[in-house]
Amino acid sequence: MSATAPAWDPAQYLRHAGHRARPFTDLLARVPDLPGEPPRVADLGCGPGNVTTLLAGRWPTARITGYDNSAQMLERARQHASPTPGGGRLDFAHADVRTWTPDEPYGLIISNATLQWVPGHVELFAGWIAALAPGGTLAFQVPGNFDAPSHRLMRELAHSPRWRSRLADTLRHDDAVLTPGAYLAHLTAAGCTADVWETTYVHLLTGEDPVLDWVKGTGLRPVLTALDDDPEARDAFVGEYRAALRAAYPAGPQGTPFPFRRVFAVARTSG
Ligand SMILES: C[S@@+](CC[C@H](N)C(=O)[O-])C[C@H]1O[C@@H](n2cnc3c(N)ncnc32)[C@H](O)[C@@H]1O
Fold this sequence. Notes:
The protein is α/β, with parallel strands linked by helices.
């Protein structure tokens, strides 16, 4: 199944920046001290760079590079590029995660909410782990919500008779990410000490149609991209999908509860 490479919209993505940053903070809390003085850090699929800046807060002397293959995201991320107060450096560069090759030993290779867009990403782990300095860490977080109503309803609509011919091959299925146990097996087989877990956040979203607003920044991007040249069709799809989401995610007294499962992994090499 091939997913359409989506066009990203940093402003739409950042509308839920607080909720989206929370798993990154939770991932970071489990990353141990890094080797290297200063440590070298790569953030793969850095997006608009706001969470990359949190790495500079944790490792003020580190040389940190955020990599992404979206020109729109990189343009936004580069607003954060600067020397860091601890004498380190934060910068951003274009790279495709599928072909990125580390050219020096890294203390940390981290990736947040990106590997679900990279089919076969576990095959890349061995190369990344080999590029870690002794005692270095590979850490990532991926959504585990491909069976949630938000994504299931999107897929069902895309496969319905009205949309099938244009959208049937557009979306990822629930095999976009592995189970926590499968990640653990891959990482330990690569010789790492691994810590893998899952968390279901219940984000309380506010505003009208907040789940639609959320997925417009992420999961719905392949559909929006595929229908970009036909605004009438795009609006019709979004209208049908909005109605389905309203039924699946009713608003409560304080907002709309949006359960969101995520899978985390922190793998450390011996050092
Ligand atoms: C959901 S955003 C996550 C951004 C950021 N890591 C965060 O946590 O806010 C996914 C990002 O992955 C990037 N991406 C997807 N596939 C990629 C690839 N093959 N190579 C590089 N970046 C990729 C997208 O451009 C996008 O910026």
